[in-house]
Amino acid sequence: MDLVPEDVIVRAPSPVVSTRLQLLDKIIAVLDALAQHPGARLPDVTRLTGIPKPTCHRLLQSLVHRHLLWRDGPHYYAGARLAWYAATVWRADGLAHRARPALRALAEATDLGAVLVRRAEGFRVTVAVAGRPDRIRAAWGAGQIGVVYAGATGKVLLAWLERHVRDEVLSQVPFRRLTPRTPPSREALERDLAVVRAHGWALTWGERETETFALAAPVFDERGETAAVSLAGHVARYRDACLAQWARMLWETGRALSRLSTGEYPAFRPPGPGPRPARF
Asked: What pLDDT is attached to residue 95?
C-alpha cells in the first residue's frame, strides 16, 4: 500500500521530472523518492522519478559511492552523509531543540501526534515530532514536506505573514484539491486565514487526508518568523468535548515557545459550543 501523502513534492510518476532537467534536479528527484520509499529498487526509483533507467542507475551508483545513499542488495536507502547534513540543520534550529520537550508533553497529555513545522517557500517542513498517531496515513517524521495552503499548520504559517510576503508565496502555488475539504481557491484560503487570526489558532478536518484532523498555533522565533506547533490525529480520536482543552494547551505551548524570543502573541479565542466543522 502506498503510504506517501498526496501533498508531498514527489509522486509517481513525478510531474516535476523531464528529460530536459539538469543533473541536480534529477539527483534531488532520486533523493526525494528514496526518502519517501526507503528500500526502493532501481525499477521503483525509475518509476517514481520518470528518469530513464540507465541514467537512474548511474545516479544511484554515484550517490552510493559518495555516501549520499547506501545499498543493501537491490534496495537503496538514504546514506550517512545525508544524516550528517540533516544533523547540522537540526542543531542550528534552536526553536526545534527547545520545542521537543513541549511536543512530548503535548503528545503524552492528548494521545495525539505533536509536531513543529516551518515554512520553506510554498511548502511546510516538519522539523520536530513527538508521538505517532494511529491510522494517520501520511508519512510521519522530521523532514516531511507538504503544501502550505491546506491543513492547520499551513494556515498558521500563512496567517501572520505580511500581506506582500503571503502574496509572493501563494503566487507560486498551484491550488490542487487534495480532498473535498481542501481550500479550492486563494479567496477561500484568505477567508480561512482571517478566522485563524481572529481565534489565535487553527482547526482543520480532512483538508490533506480525509480521515485526519489537526489543530495548530503559531510560534514566533528569534527572527520574527512564524512556525507552527500542531496536534494531529485520526478522526476516530477526535472528541468535541476535548477541543477547548486541546486548543488551549496548544496555544499556551506556542506562547511559551514564542516568549523566549518575542513579547507579542495573538489572543486566544475559545471554540464555541456545538460540533466542529472543517473550519471553526
From this structure: 81
